[in-house]
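Consider the following assembly input.
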Amino acid sequence: MKDFIIHDNWKVIEDQYHPEWNEISESLMSLGNGRMGGRANFEEKFSGKTLQGNYVAGVYYPDKTRVGWWKNGYPDYFAKVLNGANWIGIDITVGEEELDLAECEVLDFHRELDMKEGHLVRRFTAKLPSGKIVEVKSQRFMSIVDSETGAIRYSVKAVNFQDKVTIKPYVDFDVMNKDTNYDEKFWNEVEKEVSNGEGFITAETRKTLFHVTTGMKYQIFIDGEKQSFKADLEERVKYISNITSFDIKEGQTITIEKIGVNLSSEYAEKSDLVDQAKVFLNKAFEKGFDQMLDEHKKAWEVKWETSDIIIEGDAAAQQGIRFNIFQLNQTYTGEDPRLNIGPKGFTGEKYGGSTYWDTEAYCLPFYLATAPEEISKNLLLYRYKHLDRAIENAKKLGFKNGAALYPMVTMNGEECHNEWEITFEEIHRNGAIAFAIYEYIRYTNDFEYLAPYGFEVLLGISRFWTQRVNWSNYQNKYVMLGVTGPNEYENNVDNNYHTNRLAQWTLQYTREAVAYLKENHAAEYASLKEKWNFNEEEEVSKWTHIIDNMYFPYDETRQIFLQQDNFLNKEIIPTAEMGAENRPINQKWSWDRILRSCYIKQADTLQSLYLFEDDFDVETIKRHFDFYEPITVHESSLSPCIHNILASKIGNQEKAYEMYLRTARLDLDDYNNDTEDGLHITSMGGTWMGFVMGFGGFRARNNRLILNPFLPKEWKGYSFKVNFRGAHLKVQTTHDHTIIENISDVACDLTVFDKEYTLAANDTIKL
Ligand code: BGC
């Protein structure tokens, strides 16, 4: 854990120069707008520790798979989010000395991310080797209004000298991914141009042939007065810059306002890309930095209006939740169903930047409750559009008859993950995708989604489960062999409870969907049957046989479902008895030792208890929680949030609070010692779930909202807002009351502390 980020309600602040943790701060203060984003790299040259990262949504490279021992069925490539052009770069030279903090004496340093307004500020005073002192201020944002553009205001004050200051704004496409498998660069230059005050480069990704045009346009001021200049133009392969020198007197400040543009061929014809990029850039440039920032701040105000959570009396917790909400809103805005939410978003390369089960399991609830319905629907449509590829993927593994296995990791629907114990075995992801359809419909009441989209996905997944289970004469039940549950710290296990339960549940739900469609959409159902060659009688009766005869490992003595058949053969030693020097075990222990241990990486059986909580009484949930929580190491960011929700449910408020802080401040405090790689964006949806479902007791059930709020003793009060079927509610809790306000024109049915209400439009309940 680290503790260098200053606690503040709205800002993430680093108030000292920590070059050793620079990569952590670069991750934490990343900026994005759904279409592009980047790490909080310095604008000027920096030869210290840094991970350069600028990313453009939807643009990826299929890097040829590299594995030690090839297994049939492995995909040929791992899709990677690409480190794109560095458009933020502004090199500064004072006299003949280049400004590089790694070579200077840093007299003061401050970097902060303003989450309320969505911008990054950095200021420092540095003494160059010659003794010249500069004061630098920079401010940067990626516009959420003009989402192709971003803007920087960067100024240098000559504190104790008079000299020539050279400013070199540039665009550099000659960049690499740190995670490249074969040390290759992924971009080829297509064209470039540079002129006085502006420049553009278009590059093409190798193999996938995406085009991206990145450009810049800037102006310069001295002490606020706009300068005319004639820059030297520099160009080389995949690089353009302008170089201009100004004589600066002691005490004077030179400022550059640089606007950048990124436009990919996903959003414009290749032949038109440069012209289009110029239109966007010129429009932004005409508005100028201040107007752009003003509009951007207003747009953030609107986002916060619907999604903010306020915690009174605990700045660390407040900062944590806002940080999670801010990063989610920066990463995915939901307008484009081709896009999804990578576990690192626009903050790093790890996990390929692609789509995982994380989206359905951890992010969907956040968007359902805080954003327009369309956005969640787009997340579902993303999978619908990939159904053919999921079928193709299952076929490659030997499944037939339209069975669909959605990929563990994907950019375009194809599987691109290649560790057999995950790629072939971590199939619970298929269940998460089916469950998301149910969750979306349960929340929105949009049953219309089933006929054109949802059913086809459910059918493909059900066909997969039907073929993936086998009848065991030994158990006299259906079993599922050779799987990996969410807990990746044991692989190739038999009868993972969570996977078996999801399989059984999917078949049940698909059977219900068939009944619903037959009754309500007979004509569409008939054509779906034909399209998918669906032998209803035969297939549904097979499903029923599996549903009724699914095997689940159970321990009669403890009265708990077991994570897998062999779980109790393990030596069960609570983590509390393991010294701190062993943690995190994935960095301290051999993989062999981990696999044989009882330690659980992330909620697994408890993930099922969370999903299917209505099937269990509180005592049963408590028994499971008390068995699994003490042996869970939470080394996946996706874990503490589920424990937060379940601990709240069973009334273990202290544990709920501990788990909440762990999920909310996971990156801010670098709990798992990996924030430098990028943020855990998808687990941030989990943080929101942990808060609202855990402390708020928030659920949508039977066409009503359920609320059972409680306040952790450490806080004075909190409030959160949720949307539900056109209504917009604000829930406020303090130690003496709960107030629920309907701040919309639509009435809402509620159950609060087990009592039913209908909250009229613009009405309030005080309890
Ligand atoms: C987790 C997976 C998750 C992936 C991406 C892994 O560490 O175990 O459940 O899908 O990270 O977030």
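The pocket of beta-D-glucopyranose is lined by residues 343, 351, 356-358, 486, 488, 601-602, 636, 638, 682 (CB under 6 Å). Ask yourself how this observation constrains the way the partners meet.
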